Amino acid sequence: MTISGKTRVYGVIGDPIDHTLSPVMQNAAFEALKLDCTFLAFKVKPVEVSNAVSGMRALGIQGLNVTMPHKNAIIQFLDEVDPTARFLNAVNTIQNKNGKLLGFNTDGVGALRALRANAVEPKGKKVLLLGAGGAARAIAYSLASEAGELVILNRSAKPAEELANLLKQASNKKITSGTLSPETIETNLADAHILINATSIGMKPNVDETPIKPEWLKRNLAVMDIVYNPVETKLAKAAKSTKAKVISGVEMLIYQGASSFEIWTSSKAPVEVMRKAALNHLQKV
Ligand SMILES: NC(=O)c1ccc[n+]([C@@H]2O[C@H](COP(=O)([O-])OP(=O)(O)OC[C@H]3O[C@@H](n4cnc5c(N)ncnc54)[C@H](OP(=O)(O)O)[C@@H]3O)[C@@H](O)[C@H]2O)c1
Question: Of the residues 6, 34, 45, 71, which is catalytic?
Answer without folding.
Answer: 71
